[in-house]
What we know:
- Chain A is about 35% helix and about 20% strand.
- Chain A is an alpha/beta fold.
- In chain A, β7 (about 170-175), α8 (about 185-200) and β8 form a beta-alpha-beta unit.
- By secondary structure, chain B is α+β, with helices and mostly antiparallel strands.
- Chain B has 13 helices and 17 strands.
- In chain B, strands 1, 3, 4, 7, 8, 9, 10, 11, 12, 16 and 17 form an eleven-stranded mixed beta sheet that branches. Chain B has a two-stranded antiparallel ribbon with strand order 2-15. In chain B, strands 5-6 form a two-stranded antiparallel ribbon.
- In chain B, α11 crosses α13 (about 380-415) and α12 (about 330-370) packs antiparallel against α13 (about 380-415).
- The interface of A and B includes residues 53, 78, 85 and 110 of A.
Amino acid sequence: MQDRQNVIDIGRLQYRWREGLPLVLDIDELGIQRGERVFIKGASGSGKSTLLSLMAGVLSPEQGQLNILGQELTHMKGAQRDAFRADHIGFVFQMFNLLPYLSVIDNVTLPLHFSARKKSKVAQPEQEAERLLAHLDLSGSGILSRPVSELSVGQQQRVAAARALIGSPEILIADEPTSALDTDRREAFIKLLLSECDASDTTLVFVSHDDSLRSYFDRSIALGDINLASSQGE
Amino acid sequence: MPILQLAYKSLLNRRLTAVLTLISIALSVTLLLGVEKLRNESRSSFANTISATDLIVGARSGSTQLLLYSVFRIGSATNNISWQSYEELSQHPKVKWSIPISLGDSHRGFRVMGTTTDYFQHYRYSRNKGLGFASGLAFNTLYEAVLGADVAQELGYVSGQQIVIAHGAGDISLVSHDDKPFRVVGILNKTGTPVDRTIHVSLQAIEAIHVDWQGGAKLPGFQINAEQAERMALQPKSITAFMLGLKSRLATFRVLREINEYKQEPLLAIMPGVALQELWDMMGVAEKALLAISAFVVVVGLTGMVTVILTSLNERRREMAILRSVGAKPMHIFGLILGEAITLTLLGSALGLLLLYGLLVFAQPIIESQFGLFIAISWPSTYEWKLLLAVIGSGIVISILPAYRAYRYSLADGMSIRI
Lengths: 234, 419
């Protein structure tokens, strides 16, 4: 469990929403290595959003170990976990990832305002944002100058990926990022995401209920198998 | 931290509701400060109705009543005082000057006041301002009248105009002194006091028009025409009240007591400053009610803002989840909402202040000409700044409610996006 290669190390982790309610999550052991691309499969209600919130430090477990990048999150206070997330983690949601009142570039550079560490890694935020967007097949003033609400869902998800990748976080967590995309775009999006993670040596934790995607990843984990609480329902 | 910049851009995104909120805050601030300004100016204008007069003396009644009929020409005296008492008291060694006044007649709704030319010399208002003539002169012969500025303006009278005085104070009087018409010889400058609404004639003229009257009615079959009256001895037997200026202010209380204990006739002396203050305190309830109402309007404006922010919170949960995902702390979310409220309150207050002064510049001449109330366009007073600060402060304090709610949301929601 104390494998130094693991960027995420979970041991006997338990979580419930409130005291008296049944456990939502009960994971005996889960380790994810540096640079790994892990696919976590889970149906809705299997506790996957809870697991991701725990990994990102938004929620705090009832008991157990939650070690990210060698740091024990369970020992941190809320504000410390927020700062930790800002510094080390990129996050992509299922949909509606962007702030409608910010430009494409401002959306991408948003994390730099909350993390001095990410900011220090990016000398020129705008150029870096444009570079990342170009890698994700979004370039040209035509797209960059448009209000984000006018972008297609696929384009919005790629902007969100660029935002998650800026400042080279160690871990990128994606929560069903492709569920709003059609099959062709889904594949293209995953390929772009994977190649960007490769380029920046970022560990990718990708969660989806869609089993057909798992062939793109190094490893696949079924949450239902490792979550001892899932059989009890939510 | 560019959290304020985020708040600004987020607000810009909701500019329609933001502008409406701004307008409601601005209007309520304008109303509050406007009422306060008007209240102050009318109070000081009220207190300035009469100055330099140390005592007003009339028949024994209430001090407010005496003030009302002698200074404001409202209501009437229950009793007159004898000329003899006036003569005696005006010769008092402490008295510097005296002005007798005699009321009871009117002209088209304006009160006619009999007095002496001392009135034009000694009467003071608004910190020692004297009466000046806009045109013409004081009355000199018997059937001459001097008009207050409003009388001349509203009735369109100029010097040389013939006027007929009606008996009694009513607007429409059935009996008039049409056998003895007066000629306008002078018009006074505007003062913003009841002087503007008064027609001044000599005491002898009041005597002359009543020479063939008795007990409020014309004596039947007995008539003395204008020329005959002029030749008669027109020494008044009684007057309504008189004003006294003393040689030394220090003597005021002594003279006041002497007059109130005057043996020959029951008299009442009042100090106009004190009586004015009493009267204002009586009317102060209305004035305070007005201020209270405008304070409530501010509360409504601020509550509107909080309502708008609270309503927007639900649709902004996604925005907060996104911010949380990129590393924003719940405190940032708190600051975002509070920042928005502070921006709205500050901008609204500034806008309200601007609107107030804009309105003042526009309305000042109208208010002055219509109500004789001069509103100085000056930098807000300390009290007005305090009111403004109270508005901004309460805006910030009640915004803690939506900010705290957003904080709770963002703790509970974390990064799960609720749509």
